[in-house]
Specification:
heterodimer; A: mainly alpha; B: mainly alpha; 75% helix
Chain lengths: 495, 178
């Protein structure tokens, strides 16, 4: 505890609060996502110290995930993908005139979920690091492959499309200087590509400019906001859902910790689980059940701590935002992995302190500011979108001060837009871009080590950890085929 | 969406990814990708993977029993997208080629000789350059294109946004602007 408190001072608290305040608006306005804000923030905080950058980013991350629920409740449009499930019961509550009540429960249980997830990060990071000490090159390659295939299967209806997106992401990451030999590859004769495609402009394009194009491509830009009536709300009424809240937080943290699966998956699973175990809700699920809102919000916020576990200890991000955070580490010359906690414990405590302070900001902002921002979330999109486009240009330029990167951002924005329209998920592509270089390096290192041994296959996959990882990864990669075989077998047995 | 249209769309997607995959595979193999220590070894694998997955895409489309309703291109606002892309392309082109900005010299002189008040204020005016001027024009054009017609909104938003961005990024955060 003392270690966490040692990094906290007034400046630190102010930075987290600034991030949280920005996160509240960014998360609540549909069209502005937490991933987009984090990607922009990475380029802006480029010149800051790592601690300051992490403080601001943790604020945006924690409060941004929470505030996606504000627009989900008030206008039935989730501010972030992880709040899609909140619309199921949050909006019906608002239509009944209970918008303030829904927001109150959301705030309390997002707070519980966030604290739960961060506590899990605090407790679990060290044991996972100890385990990761035994990993070698091929294990890291398999873990990255597992993460990418999980995202592919959970973020899209079509598994093939998810894998194609991941493959394209890896392809993009391979452009530029080869990490082992140092020669330029796949640059197609373009001199500016010799340094590779920078992650930040690509991410700003995929999340920011693609969203700009998506919003303008939708004909319907009108939305109606639910009225906010004054209500008497008691903490006791909200805390009576503590069992559901803790159960959803546990699910959220676990799912978040799986490389690849993020908030949207966690909230779907938690919602279905809570629906299954709640026999007699006061109001049926889907018509404004408080239990539904609690399950969704506790689980998606608990995901934050969970997703940071593999990111910090294995350098494998748990979701899109942690993938961007991983690039913050690389930008500042840091290497997350099993040595991270030993070598830079102060940064681990900075993340924890930032997270816990952001939770307090969430509570304050959620209770006092969120009910008043209904006007902000309905800023006409025709005014908001041009401003976002300008911010994307600045974000793309700021990381390397190259106008070429602005072009890269536009190209990736267009690619992201087409992918969205054709139902290709963005998250696997992002993971591919961030992890591709590392996969290439570890894969070649593993083969080169194993080829010098007598038995190639045994040297590659002979260790128990590697065998388990290989089985799990192959299982994940071929999950659609296995599922099909299983249902076929079940049908045969039934006959 | 008709089933035939789904097939055509799937064929188009298959062709795109198949071409990317096969070009990557052949190029990588011919540049030394057969040797596992070559920088082109992993790209060759990714090329092969994309070829395989594009075939999977075609297989998925052929096996599709129920054609799901999904928004076709005609339903989306193509005019808006094309317009935004064109305005953005012009904005990028002027930022890239940086034509001489007549306002730059005048603003600079104006700030140094006439308005030498606070250092920060002076520095903002001093550094007013292509980015701010073109951003005002870009915001104005884009908002007008998207349907904002009120001058009370158009002018203040397109002027205040670059000003605020300039103060925050250039002066407070020391971030360079295009």
């Amino acid at each position: 505890m003392l270690e966490i408190l040692s990094v906290v001072d007034i400046r630190f608290i102010l930075l987290v609060f600034m991030g949280s305040f920005a996160g509240l608006f960014v998360g609540a306005v549909p069209g502005l996502s937490v991933s987009m804000a984090t990607a922009l923030l990475v380029s802006i905080t480029y010149t800051w110290s790592t601690g300051d950058a992490l403080a601001a980013i943790m604020g945006v991350y924690v409060v941004g995930v929470f505030s996606g629920a504000v627009s989900a409740i008030l206008i039935n449009i989730p501010g972030a993908p992880s709040s899609i499930v909140t619309t199921f019961d949050g909006y019906p509550m608002a239509k009944r005139g209970e918008a303030r009540k829904a927001l109150y429960h959301t705030t309390i249980h997002s707070f519980i979920g966030s604290v739960f997830g961060l506590a899990a990060l605090w407790l679990m990071a060290r044991p996972v690091s100890m385990l990761a000490r035994n990993f070698n090159s091929i294990d890291y390659f398999l873990l990255a492959l597992f993460g990418i295939s999980t995202v592919g299967s959970t973020t899209s209806k079509s598994y093939t499309k998810g894998l194609i997106a991941a493959g394209l992401g890896i392809f993009v990451s391979l452009i530029g200087q080869d990490p082992m030999v140092g020669t330029a590859r796949l640059t197609f004769g373009i001199r500016n590509l010799q340094a590779g495609i920078d992650t930040i402009p690509a991410l700003v394009g995929l999340f920011g400019f693609a969203e700009v194009l998506t919003v303008v491509s939708e004909a319907n830009l009108n939305q109606s906001v639910a009225q906010m009536k004054q209500m008497k709300l008691k903490l006791k009424d909200s805390l009576k859902y503590w069992k559901i809240s803790l159960y959803s937080s546990l699910l959220g943290t676990g799912i978040g910790a799986l490389p690849g699966a993020g908030g949207p998956v966690a909230s779907f699973i938690a919602y279905n689980e809570v629906k299954r175990i709640t026999k007699n809700p006061d109001v049926p699920f889907g018509e404004g059940a408080v239990e539904g809102v609690v399950a969704s919000e506790a689980s998606n916020n608990a995901c934050i701590g969970g997703a940071l576990i593999p990111m910090l200890t294995l350098a494998i991000p748990g979701d899109a935002v942690t993938a961007i955070m991983l690039s913050v580490f690389y930008v500042h010359g840091l290497r997350p992995g099993y040595r991270f906690l030993e070598e830079t414990p102060e940064l681990f405590y900075t993340i924890l302190a930032g997270g816990f302070i952001a939770c307090l900001c969430l509570l304050i902002l959620g209770l006092f500011v969120a009910p008043k921002i209904s006007k902000v979330i309905t800023i006409p999109k025709m005014i908001l979108i041009p401003i976002v486009a300008v911010l994307c240009v600045i974000g793309a330029f700021a990381s390397n001060n190259r106008i070429f990167d602005v072009g890269i951002m536009f190209v990736f924005g267009l690619i992201g837009f087409i992918m969205k329209k054709r139902n290709y998920p963005i998250a696997p592509m992002v993971l591919g871009i961030v992890l591709g270089g590392m996969m290439d390096r570890y894969f070649r290192m593993a083969i080169s080590t194993a080829s010098s041994r007598d038995n190639f296959l045994l040297a590659m996959f002979g260790r128990p950890i590697t065998m388990i990882l290989l089985l799990v990864t192959l299982g994940m990669l071929f999950s659609p085929l296995l599922k099909k075989a299983y249902t076929g077998l079940k049908a045969k047995m039934a006959k | 969406m008709k089933k035939s249209k789904v097939y055509i769309a799937a064929m188009a997607e298959f062709s795109v990814f198949f071409c990317i995959g096969i070009v990557l595979l052949i190029y990588s193999l011919s540049t030394g990708g057969r040797d596992f220590q070559s920088p082109y070894f992993f790209p060759a694998i990714i090329g092969g993977f994309l070829v395989l997955m594009s075939a999977g895409l075609l297989h998925d489309a052929l096996k599709l029993k129920d054609v799901q309703e999904r928004p076709s291109v005609s339903q989306m606002n193509v005019k808006n997208v094309m317009g935004v892309l064109m305005i953005t392309a012009v904005y990028y082109a002027v930022l890239y080629f940086k034509p001489v900005n007549p306002l730059y010299i005048r603003t600079k002189a104006f700030s140094v000789h006439t308005l030498g008040y606070a250092v920060s204020f002076k520095s903002i005016l001093f550094t007013i350059a292509n980015f701010e001027i073109f951003t005002i024009a870009f915001l104005f054009a884009l908002m007008y294109f998207l349907g904002v017609r009120k001058w009370k909104v158009l002018l203040p938003v397109s002027i205040i946004t670059p000003a605020v961005v300039s103060i925050i990024f250039r002066t407070m955060l020391y971030v360079l602007l295009p």
